[in-house]
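Backbone shapes recur. Consider a single case.
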Amino acid sequence: MKNKRSINKFLICSIMAILLFTVAGCSDATSTNSNSSTPKETTAQSSSTNKSESASQTETSSPIKLEKAKVTHHTDGDTIGVTLENGQYAKVRFIGVNTPESTTKHEQYGEEASNYTKSQLYGKTVYLESDAGTTDKYGRLLRYVWLSPPTAINESEIRAKMFNAILAYNGYAEQMTIQPNVKYADYFKKFCAEARQNSRGLWAINPNGTTKGDGISAPSSSQNSNNTSNSSNTNTPNSASSLNSNNNQSSSTQSTSTEQQKVPTQTSTTDNKSMTVYVTKTGHKYHRAGCKYLARSQIPISLGEAESEGYTPCSICDPPQ
């Protein structure tokens, strides 16, 4: 009887041990399966994230921050109007370059520069890059205008894709560096020098350029009536001299002759006041383009504004007065 009980106890203990072992094995297997699925899920999530990041990097492959815009308006050679991606309209003034005037004032090669900018940009999508200063005193955006996003910032990319630079090396613009926007100033200086050395664009008509107050302006209406409509602006001074000579030799009364002679003088004074001269942040004199005192900074203003603000002419570069 005792042996039978012992056997029963042994069997019961054996069965319990087997059950415990089985339960423990299933638990481990479940745990192992659970743990083994985690790396797979993590890998899948990581792969999905990498693909997303890769796509994002492809869309923004440019090494600089750019704002996409469409050119919807044209002003002149160095100013355009754009519609930004948020639907807002803004005027954009190109940084680092200055084209001859073609709006309220007409300088030689101004019309050509204006037409070139319009032909290259109007209706197209561009990419705007800002510098340290974002707007000018007129509220215009100060920007570098890229025709397409650059893949790197080097001379070849700038020469091929940045419209500011394209204007410079094709001779449509002179360099105009105003602090603090100087990121690409050295490139503009080089490109303008190349255009000047090769007599391209505005450098072909005047070795000193035409945007720095050199006295070139549109002829008066009285002069136009005595010249053919196709006459070049470079002949304006000779035409004016001829007109005055004819007036002096006229058989008209002295009062009529005097009135005719006064007209060019009044027009010349008005034109002089609208000429562009340059001042510095700390100086008290105004200068002509290329003056050695403009090496660090140059701020363009009209001659009339310079005089009204108390600036006096530089004795070194002898600017217009």
Remarks:
- Residues 29-49, 51-59, 213-270 have pLDDT under 50 and may be disordered.
- The longest strand covers residues 67-76.
- The CA atoms of residues 180 and 215 lie 29 Å apart.
- The chain has nine helices and eleven strands.
